[in-house]
Design brief:
alpha+beta; 3 helices; three-stranded mixed sheet; single chain
Length: 108
């Protein structure tokens, strides 16, 4: 398990995801620095969760599980969440692809 960002929101997301899914692998990365937000903001995240809990579930079902787990944060502090929820049997150690460059914000 690894966490690429260690701010308080990233730590909370990591704790909640770990408790809910007992993942074989977990990455929580704050990508707010790629967006037009104040320095130090924790609003944009990507997560990679590899868990037996996702076995036999379609992608949309896996995403719903993650969204439900983080519902409070999504309703309050987290603006955007990129989810990579992988069943343990389908994970071969791959890392998430880099996120595309932000194209929005303040009329851009």
């Amino acid at each position: 398990m690894s966490t690429l960002s260690e701010g308080p929101v990233a730590r909370l997301l990591k704790e909640k995801l770990f408790a809910a899914f007992q993942p074989k692998h977990l990455e929580v990365e704050c990508e707010s620095h790629l967006h037009n937000v104040p320095k130090g903001a924790e609003k944009h995240f990507r997560v990679q969760v590899v868990s037996d809990e996702f076995e036999g579930k379609r992608v949309i079902e896996r995403h719903r599980l993650v969204n439900t787990c983080l519902a409070k944060e999504l309703a309050t502090t987290v603006h955007a969440l990129r989810i990579d929820a992988i069943p343990t049997s389908k994970w071969d150690g791959q890392k998430q692809e880099d996120s595309p460059t932000c194209r929005g914000g303040f009329g851009k």
